[in-house]
Amino acid sequence: MKNITKLGAVSALSLIVGASAAFAENIKVAFIDPLSGPFASTGTNGLHQFEFAADYMVNQKGGLLDGAQMEVLGFDNKVSPKESLIQLQVAIDQGVRYIVQGNSSGVAIALTEAIEKHNSRNPDSRVLFLNYAAVDPVLTNEKCNFWHFRFDANADIKMDALTDVIAENDDIKKVYIIGQDYSFGKAVGDAAVSMLGEKRSDIEIVGNELHPIGKVKDFTPYSRKIVASGADAVITGNWGSDMLGLGKSIIDNGFTGPIYTYYAAGSGITAAFGESGKGVIRLISEGQVNPPPSPEAAAYYDAFKVKYPDGNIDQTRISNTIGMLAAAITKAGTADDVVAVANALEGMEYDSMWGGKLMMRPDDHQLIQDMHIAAHTNEGITYTFDNSEYGVLVESTVEMASADIASTCEMKRP
Q: At what angle do helices 155-167 and 183-199 cross, to 10 degrees?
């Protein structure tokens, strides 16, 4: 009798433990971006934003499906495509099914190609690539694939909105283009030349050059050429320490015209520009934090600052990525079948707390959304960056930017 009772108790306990293990199975998201080196501050702040979004938007609301929690794991890729592929395999071996990355389109291209090969060879451990910031247009054009989704606007979409604003400014007659020497920097330069030519053929491109990424310590030679060119405006896609180094050098060498940028906010950049960036730095981006577009956005930002007093929400697309992933998993009814989740993401419309409707275009997996041009300032803002008195204030908006822009993607679905 005792043996039977003991056996029954053990069996019951095993069922409880098994059920608890299944209930507690985390949905793992691998963040593969720089956590060391010259771009560490950019990567670390991005990781904190992903961790917070998963906790605030998913875990604190009871999780997904049967209460599964979303866990964000950080992997340092040192902005190296080779290192990124190593970290990708480590993540897959740990049971990760969702990869997020954004810093460097060169890395993104390596990842999307590797993921496509992995998924074709390993149908039982397929993964999705949720690209939150790598904006080389090729990723949703000739290099598109079913497993890749981009939550940021690509470089052409951003440049289309940016050049609309430049074209309306009659004071701009000469433009200097400068960027980092890799695929994204080249894409920005090509788009600027092409779109300015179409919209304002009278504008003269007085410079168009690239510099080594993450290696320039002194941008003075570049800045002097810009000032000497007589440029009325500068366009750059630089990010991280290269954005700060270039921008500070241009201003310090006497340039007073607008510097149109993609990534000149947060991660120490805003504080470092300070008063010198006022009236000069312009930023093209998705989302809006000043003024806060909704009470939900304000509450989210306030809660983030409580947890990360030194951090910034300078990439609203990160919470959009987590929110849309959660919605897709819920719709699919599974987190393990990434094909079902991908099908749920395709064509999804999502109301962002940061303003506007988002739509994941099914043809190429490019998110269509509003684009904003904001100015670096300390006036009229609710949320500042880098614990400084400065932030960015939206000056103009292009709704659902480039929704009809052509794509050369030929999607092959499983």
A: 40
